[in-house]
Amino acid sequence: MATTPEHDARIAKMTFSSIYPHYVNKIEKKGRSVDELHRVIHWLTGFDEKKLNELITQKVTFEEFFAKAQLNPNAHLIKGVICGYRIEEIETPLTKQARYLDKLVDELAKGRKMEKILRANP
Hints:
single chain; mainly alpha; Helicase, Ruva Protein, domain 3; two-stranded antiparallel ribbon; 2 strands
């Protein structure tokens, strides 16, 4: 299922700070911690705690968020379906990166082991 230009533009303009609380709620409801969430975000983006909080405070868009990120070289190993889209088939890089993050948060909430989420043994 291909994304539309409108869908891609909507993701680009969303602020990370508006989505972050949803990530926290999702993982905490399933017994996971904010520290684990931050570990997952750090793995994908390279952002440490200080930088992540700075980006949340600045209310950066997803476009700005991922422009500042150093994407993990193993991010391409994140596969599967999230929000109705097969990650491997998403052509727009920013939309794919946002879905990578969604997928990692989903895996964390589903109780997957951290080594698997972080693609420790590809």
